[in-house]
Specification:
Length: about 140
């Protein structure tokens, strides 16, 4: 693991743009900076995270080549495992969740557009669950 303090002031870690973390917010104690970043290489892509998920499932897909960096919180992995068990216990044919993105350092026009589209349909009613995964700069 590479310590969080290795992130430079511009939000880069060894030449890879991670982004800047927001300042802590008292009302949201879970939105704190991570202790460090896990290095993802071709050699550890198949390292298990939880029963059906591996490092490759959490590694950023938007970054070409290696190394890549990720942050995992143990308590969220446990919740993911419990949620998987719950869905299976309810009788759904389901083997695993797909992880899209847990952190975006800053919104892009595409993200804002997708979030706005997801919030309302032409009738003004909610139409999608995209928005919770698209909170800019925060793990959701």
């Amino acid at each position: 693991m590479i310590p969080f303090d290795s992130l430079d002031k511009r939000g880069y870690l060894k030449g890879v743009k991670i982004g800047k973390y927001p300042k802590p917010i008292a009302e949201f104690p879970n939105f704190t900076k991570p202790k460090g970043f896990i290095v993802v290489t071709p050699d550890n892509l198949d390292t298990p995270g939880v029963t059906a998920l591996h490092a490759r499932d959490f590694a950023p897909r938007s970054i070409e080549g290696f190394p890549k960096y990720m942050v995992l919180r143990e308590e969220l992995l446990i919740k993911l495992e419990l949620l998987t068990d719950l869905v299976q216990a309810r009788g759904f044919k389901f083997d695993r969740f797909t992880v899209f993105s847990g952190y975006r350092p800053r919104p892009t026009a595409t993200v804002w557009s997708a979030a706005a589209t997801a919030r309302t349909s032409t009738a003004g009613r909610p139409t999608s669950s995209l928005t919770p995964t698209m909170t800019a700069g925060l793990m959701t």
